[in-house]
Amino acid sequence: MDLEAILRITYSANQGKIYCLNSSGWAPRKLTIEFLKNLGYREMPTFSPFSVTVPGLVAGLNELHRKFGSIEFSELRKDPISFAENGFPVYWSLSRAIEFGAKNFADEGFRKSYLINGRPPKVGEILKQKNLAEVLKSIACEGPDVFYNGWIAEEIANYLNRKEEIFQFQISATLNLNGVNQFPQHTIIFVSTKYRLIAWVQQPTHVKHVRRVKPQKH
């Protein structure tokens, strides 16, 4: 999971400042075009550990909280932990996504996390994710670093490396799951224009599709 955010921080009635944060995950260092070609691939496999990037969501949320947050990070985790531990009603789009996943993934981890009695949950059924609750508790207590440099990173790397070792994990105070000194999030320059008295703000895309434009009214 990655995070790309556009924030508008208003300081006064006639003054505002916009921040863009790109916390998209990088591919593992070892995962090169040559590496895939040597395994017989001619295009990126869709349902494979090779299509997984280092998740940027945790680092991105932490950075947004560091810059703009007013509530303790651990406090913000209480509701998500409760939803994961005690369950929540499955909504329509989630039910469809899990149904799609059940047809395309033979992965036991997916089945344990998302299926109820071996089948995709129906809309309105309560889905509990105990493992996710434990992960969120650990992040709340130890901070985001445990996700990139602790037991969570180690489990992710070990799980994805079952067939080919592409994620490298080292227990070190300065290395994260991707083997770099810090997660590659960065604040970037946004694209903006005015149209019919509305300021349109767009975070520049770095992939081959058009992103939805978000309006900011003055």
Can you put this structure into words, describing what you see?
- With 218 residues, the chain is of the alpha+beta class.
- It has one domain.
- The chain contains nine helices and eight strands.
- The chain has a three-stranded antiparallel beta sheet, with no helix packed on it.
- Helix 4 runs antiparallel to helix 7.
- The longest helix is centred in the middle third of the chain and has 13 residues.
- Unreliable segments (pLDDT under 50, ≥5 consecutive)? 171-182, 208-216
Largest sheet: 3 strands, antiparallel
Kindly state the number of beta strands: 8
What letter string, H or E per element, gives the SSE order? EEHHHHEHHEHHHEEEE
Rg result: 20 Å
Coarse structural class: alpha+beta
Quickly count the helices.
9
Task: Pick out its properties.
9 helices, globular, 218 residues, alpha+beta, 17% strand, 3-stranded antiparallel sheet
Give a brief rundown of this model.
With 218 residues, the chain is an alpha+beta fold. It is globular. It has one domain (4-87, 128-217).
Layout of secondary structure:
Blueprint: E1 4-12, E2 15-22, H1 33-38, H2 57-68, H3 73-76, H4 78-86, E3 88-89, H5 92-104, H6 108-114, E4 126-127, H7 130-142, H8 145-149, H9 151-160, E5 186-187, E6 191-195, E7 198-202, E8 214-217
Antiparallel strand pairs: 1-2, 2-5, 3-4, 6-7, 7-8
Helix pairs in contact: 4-7
